[in-house]
Amino acid sequence: MSQAPRFRTVLSCSLLLASLGAGVAACGGPDSSPLSSTPFDAAGQISFSGPKGSGKAADPNKPLEVTIKNGSGRITDVTATDATGRQLAGELSADGSRWHSTASLAAGAHYTVRVSTEDGRGQPGTRMFRFDTKSSSNRLNATFGPEKGVYGVGQPITAQLSAPVKAKADRAKVERALKVTSVPAADGAWYWVDSKTLHFRPKEYWPAHATIKVRSNLNGIKIAGKLYGGDAKPLTITTGDRLEALANAGSDQMVVKRNGKVINTIPITMGKPGFSTRNGVKVVLGKTRYVRMTSSSIGIAAGSSDSYDLPVYFATQVTWSGEYVHAAPWSVGSQGYANTSHGCTGMSMDNATWFFNHFRKGDIVNVTGSEGATMTPFDNGFGDWNLSWDKWRKGSALSAGKQADSTPAETARLQPAAF
């Protein structure tokens, strides 16, 4: 008569212990051997494909394998973990004779491998291996932005890679390793702007007074071919109040809200016909108390009726091509009534000073009612919020849908131009 499967014996033992109470110390298997005995050293039972001897490193391009010698039992479990806590994926054969890794080893890593076995009588065995993998000189480093500091709720997180990553499967490896967390929590995703640039934003704006942390688990991970993940300095930023400037080119009024409450209404003038201000959500890029604006920088010939060369004060920049919110004392008579600028948002000196003192990088300027085109997402500042959440998700390599086409981000940043 064949012996009953071991799991049934263990179940019977458990039931027996439960019925007899704490007075029972142990119970035995079919051969009366203790089932809870100390595991034996399985060194002679298994074969390990890793490097033999100290000072030797494994090739990360080769799989890891653990096998049973001469049918002397079976492998019950294998875990392979590097020093950072990342666990190597693997697969155990149905008969327990072989385990092999199904993912690439990390380069320049230190691994600990724990193997559990059983012999022919069901006795447990265990063995531990430690080894290093060879490092790689071909590394994919990531630089996170912006710099550490306090920002408005519209500030995207950026990741600049040191080498291009083109295949969607390879991009997915990178995305999984780039971690963004927020307290309070915010649902967000990465978007591949081009093969070396990623932006991360939430579905909505960041929560006010949030702490946002960015880190990378990319180090040592195989990306493609001989390209492995490299270093990335972690980043922490915080957000301030939710500050939004809602500029309407139809009414020539700007309504400013803090955390949803109106705190100021400012008469403005915006781009006149032929120089209409861009519609859409823009993110403050920076501020300068003085900037010289010239018409020649946007291609207006000297001597033209539209030519200018002016000192401009309290200028808050919202595009790389030179669109600002700034003081325009020469157009006070038109502010609140007509659009007379070459694309910028002009206001009185007092109002521009107030705006300059209240707004910071990452705050929102949302323009509506203009005859101009909509702000582009990536090539003229941070227009990320002008993509719907569905379209944004398609820019992720982890999205189930078709990935959006990459948009080159290396557009030249033009000099300040319009007033």
Write the layout of secondary structure elements.
Layout: H1 6-20, E1 40-41, E2 46-48, E3 57-58, E4 65-68, E5 74-82, E6 90-92, E7 98-101, E8 110-118, E9 124-133, E10 139-140, E11 142-145, E12 150-151, E13 157-161, H2 168-177, E14 178-183, E15 188-194, E16 197-202, E17 211-216, E18 222-224, E19 227-229, E20 235-239, E21 243-248, E22 253-258, E23 261-267, E24 280-283, E25 286-294, E26 309-317, E27 324-327, E28 345-347, H3 349-358, E29 364-368, H4 389-394
Structure description:
The protein is mainly beta and 419 residues long. The chain has four domains: 1-37, no CATH class; 39-133, Immunoglobulin-like; 139-239, Sandwich (Immunoglobulin-like); 243-394, L,D-transpeptidase catalytic domain-like. Helices cover 10% and strands 35% of the residues. It is built from four helices and 29 strands. It has helices spanning 6-20, 168-177, 349-358, 389-394, and strands at 40-41, 46-48, 57-58, 65-68, 74-82, 90-92, 98-101, 110-118, 124-133, 139-140, 142-145, 150-151, 157-161, 178-183, 188-194, 197-202, 211-216, 222-224, 227-229, 235-239, 243-248, 253-258, 261-267, 280-283, 286-294, 309-317, 324-327, 345-347, 364-368. The strands form seven sheets. Strands 1, 3, 5, 8 and 9 form a five-stranded mixed β-sheet that branches. Strand 26 and strand 27 form a beta hairpin. It is elongated and about 95 Å long.
